[in-house]
Design goal:
With 322 residues, the protein is α+β, with helices and mostly antiparallel strands. It has two domains: 120 residues; 181 residues, no CATH class. Helices cover 39% and strands 26% of the residues. The chain has five helices and 14 strands. Strands 1, 5, 6, 10, 11 and 12 form a six-stranded antiparallel beta sheet that branches. Helix 1 packs antiparallel against helix 2 and helix 1 runs parallel beside helix 3. The longest helix is centred in the first third of the chain and has 58 residues. The N and C termini lie far apart (159 Å).
Length: 322
């Protein structure tokens, strides 16, 4: 007996298998490499490489499909094209979504980089501030015994000057505050003039004479100056001030000094120092003060340049006639 001829058409199954494998390989390649894709300069070089690889895969896939289609029926080709179109649309949607996600990440990275740069600048400024921390230096003239003059203590350097109206720089300072920073002064005479009934109060033999200065500074070399002034402010040329005045006796004055790091709660101070200013001198620089970066300070004899500065200051100041 003759066997019947049994044959099975495998063209459709083989064609779809080849196409599916090829498209699968194409999509897998895209998904694997899309993590490196960027539409911004951050990943531009990698994106170009991936694009070249995808294009090469498309060319290889096209060659495979050309060979397969050469043996396929029109119906098979139609099904194949429809499947390819569907998968390509899915790939385009995936690429577009990845592009949007990547752009959002790039924007976030850029924002974080800007915030990081701002924080680094702030940290650098804080470090610089800590490295060059300023401190407060104060001086106090506790009392004096020459009652016919008003004394003022100040912190001075040879290059200091007063800012006058219209941006005029006046280097002669003895008729004014005569100190860097801020300064105050109050005499026994002024206190009693303000409070005339104080004579009827117990303890009126106490002296109210005092003067002080307050200055925020870096470490450096400064000079203490003590100036004898008249009590009443008057017009001195273009500006008002206090004339310099000699006293009838030598003046004994008592001075203390402090430096303070406010942020570290550290204060350094001296004991009270007594100095004597001769009666014929209008002003004196009793000593030079050297302030160290640690806030410690020491006293030295005034240098020739500061003594020359004081001599020039006195020569050009308004004074009470002998």
């Amino acid at each position: 007996m003759r066997r019947p001829n049994r044959s099975i058409e495998v063209l459709d199954i083989s064609l779809m298998a080849v196409v599916t494998k090829a498209m699968g390989a194409f999509l897998v390649l895209m998904v694997v490499f899309m993590q490196y894709y960027s539409s911004q300069p951050l990943g531009q070089q990698t994106a170009q490489q991936i694009t070249q690889q995808v294009e090469q895969t498309q060319r290889d896939l096209t060659e495979v499909l050309r060979k397969v289609i050469a043996k396929a029926t029109p119906e098979d080709i139609a099904k194949l094209l429809e499947e390819m179109r569907r998968r390509l649309e899915e790939a385009k949607k995936l690429i577009e979504q990845l592009r949007r996600d990547n752009d959002a990440l790039n924007a976030q990275v850029q924002r974080l980089e800007q915030e990081n740069a701002a924080l680094e600048q702030e940290i650098a400024e804080l470090e610089k501030k800590l490295a060059n921390e300023k401190f407060v230096v104060t001086g106090h003239l506790i009392n004096w015994d020459c009652m016919d003059a008003r004394l003022r203590i100040g912190l001075v350097v040879p290059e200091m000057y007063l800012n006058r109206p219209n941006n005029v720089q006046d280097k002669y300072v003895l008729n004014d505050g005569a100190t860097l920073g801020q300064g105050t002064s109050l005499s026994d005479h002024e206190f009693r003039r303000t409070y005339p009934n104080v004579n009827a109060t117990p303890g009126t033999h106490a002296r109210f004479n005092n003067s002080s200065f307050y200055y925020v500074t870096d470490p450096g070399v400064f000079n203490i100056v003590v100036v004898k002034q008249s009590y009443d402010t008057e017009q001195l040329g273009q500006y008002r001030g206090l004339r310099l005045k000699r006293t009838q006796q030598d003046c004994s004055v008592y001075i203390t000094m402090q430096t303070a790091f406010l942020s570290k709660n550290v204060v350094r101070s001296t004991f009270t120092i007594r100095i004597v200013i001769p009666k014929d001198e209008f002003a004196a620089v009793p000593y030079q003060i050297n302030i160290q970066p640690s806030g410690e300070f020491d006293f030295k004899e005034p240098s020739p340049p500061i003594l020359a500065w004081l001599k020039d200051q006195v020569a050009n100041a308004a004074k009470v006639s002998p």
